[in-house]
């Protein structure tokens, strides 16, 4: 048990677990900044990074193999004592529906409150996720600012159309980083620099494995 968890239990509050789900092909500083700011602001005792096995809403045919995306996440987070990784979705067959993952985490962490961290682009889509209502029963969402995706209209829509879920969806201002995995992949293809967009250990790994070259 971590110090934060012990403190929460002493105060009879539920400790909070952050969940950062993503394709992470590759993981970059946009993901890491969102997770770290959410951890601090929402007093999360830890953040569990869960690379998807088969992302439900992404239809690219050339998504890198799960174990490689897992390894990149593992390398990216190893210096943060509050970050952990889970292979739950990588090991599961079929599309990685969040609701299935949350049911498992709910059983694994019965004493925790669960917070799912997304960027504002993913937040705009959550009502289209499988069993969205059940998801919102199980967890709260933290939507981190992402350049190009304004979440204000989304919150107005939630207020009007899903007022019962309002308190379970939070907006988080973060130093917004215009970094995406798509841009990193296309930079690699074009031979453009990617240094400082992602942790160096991840850059060296994708170079060694020749990821994103000639795709
Ligand atoms: N720069 C960023 N700032 C804030 N959140 C981000 C950022 N990049 C990704 N996220 C969030 O991290 C989660 C996982 O994102 P994902 O792995 O799909 O990365 P991506 O950069 O959006 O990938 P791609 O470009 O391949 O679509 C999503 O909730 C997404 O909104
Ligand atoms: O469960 C769903 O229907 C669902 C639909 C789209 C995305 N998600 C989850 O949202 C997270 C971010 O997804 P992505 O595609 O932006 O990497 C990741 O954990 C996905 O499994 C989940």
From TrEMBL:
EC number(s) on file: 2.7.7.18
Annotated coiled-coil segments of the chain: none
InterPro entries, per database record: Cyt_trans-like, NadD/NMNAT, Rossmann-like_a/b/a_fold
Catalytic activity: nicotinate beta-D-ribonucleotide + ATP + H(+) = deamido-NAD(+) + diphosphate
Domain Cytidyltransferase-like, chain residue ranges per copy: 19-187
Gene Ontology molecular function, alphabetical: ATP binding; nicotinate-nucleotide adenylyltransferase activity
SUPFAM superfamilies per UniProt: Nucleotidylyl transferase
Source organism superkingdom: Bacteria
Gene Ontology biological process: NAD+ biosynthetic process
Function comment: Catalyzes the reversible adenylation of nicotinate mononucleotide (NaMN) to nicotinic acid adenine dinucleotide (NaAD).
Protein name: Probable nicotinate-nucleotide adenylyltransferase
Organism encoding this protein: Desulfosporosinus orientis (strain ATCC 19365 / DSM 765 / NCIMB 8382 / VKM B-1628 / Singapore I) (Desulfotomaculum orientis)
Highest classification ranks of the organism: Bacteria, Bacillati, Bacillota, Clostridia, Eubacteriales
Gene behind the chain: nadD
């Amino acid at each position: 048990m971590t110090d934060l968890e012990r403190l929460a239990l002493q105060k009879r509050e539920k400790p909070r677990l952050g969940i950062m789900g993503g394709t992470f092909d590759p993981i970059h500083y946009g993901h890491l900044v969102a997770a770290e700011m959410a951890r601090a602001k929402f007093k999360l005792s830890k953040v569990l990074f869960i690379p998807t096995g088969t992302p439900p809403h992404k239809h690219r045919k050339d998504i890198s193999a799960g174990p490689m995306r897992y390894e990149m996440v593992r390398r990216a987070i190893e210096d943060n004592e509050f970050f952990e990784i889970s292979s739950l979705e990588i090991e599961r067959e079929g599309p990685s529906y969040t609701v299935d993952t949350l049911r498992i985490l709910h059983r694994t962490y019965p004493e925790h409150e669960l917070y799912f961290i997304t960027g504002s682009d993913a937040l705009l889509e959550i009502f289209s996720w499988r069993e969205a209502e059940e998801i919102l029963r199980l967890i709260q969402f933290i939507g981190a600012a992402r350049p190009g995706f304004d979440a204000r209209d989304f919150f107005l829509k939630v207020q009007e159309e899903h007022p019962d879920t309002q308190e379970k969806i939070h907006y988080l201002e973060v130093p917004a980083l215009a970094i995406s995995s798509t841009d990193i992949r296309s930079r690699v293809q074009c031979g453009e620099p990617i240094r400082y967009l992602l942790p160096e250990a991840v850059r060296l790994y994708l170079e060694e494995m020749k990821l994103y070259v000639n795709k």
